[in-house]
Amino acid sequence: MDFDSxxxxxxxxDVGYFLADWQFRQADLDQAGTDQLYESFLxxxxxxxxxxxLMRIRLYEAVELVKCAxxxxxxxxDDCASRMSALVERAQWVIDDVQRTLILRxxxxxxxxxxxxxxAEKRRCLQQGAASCKG
Length: 135
Description:
It is built from four helices and no strands. By secondary structure, it is mostly helical.
C-alpha cells in the first residue's frame, strides 16, 4: 500500500473521482448501459446524501474528467483527440447540470425570500397601524 498521496479530504472527492475514473474506463462499452449504471449509482447517493454533498460530488467529477483527458489519454492513440473531446464534453455536461440545479435552487430561494420580505412588510404595517400601509 502506498501512502505517499494519502491526505484528509472531502469525502465527495472520493465519489467524484470514482465516477470520473469509472466513466474513463467504460468509454469503449455500451453507452446506454453505462449511463444507466451511472444514473443508478447517483440515485442511490441522492437518496442518502445532502444536496450540497451531491453538488460537490458532481464538481469533483467534472474536474477529474478533465484530468483524465489531460493525464490518462495516450497522445499517440488513434482516437486520442476524440477521446479527450468526449471526456471534456462530459465534464462540461456535468458542470451545466450542476449550474442548472443551482439556478433552480436560487430561484426557489429568491421566491421564498420575496415572500419573507412581503410578510415582514405586512407585519411592520400592522405594528405601525393601518394608516402607514399602502395597498
